[in-house]
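A favour, since you know our structure tokens better than I do. What I am after is a single protein written out in full by you. Could you add the entry underneath, on a fresh line?


***
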Amino acid sequence: MNPDDLVGLVAVVLLFGGGTVCLLAMSPVGKALAARITGKKGVAEDDETAEEVKELRREVDEMRHLTEQMSELGERVDFLERLVARQREAERLPPAR
């Protein structure tokens, strides 16, 4: 391989690689990566995230409460079905002599 070809190849790789790194650094992904590396956290983002977590926890608690209510309603329906079944059986059976 000719050394001039190698220099040209290295120049092209560095040019496109450097351009890609610069564009990545300016993107939100690059900024997030830089913040993670430096250990900095956005205060506004932390507050928003904390508020979202609180809201999601409230929703999960509500869902758990709804699950308990559904379970209680299921038990009530079962009880009423048994009552109706007993009443129908009593109507079908002939009176005792």
Summary: The two ends are 114 Å apart (CA to CA). The chain has two domains: 1-40, 42-97. The CA atoms of residues 31 and 82 lie 64 Å apart.
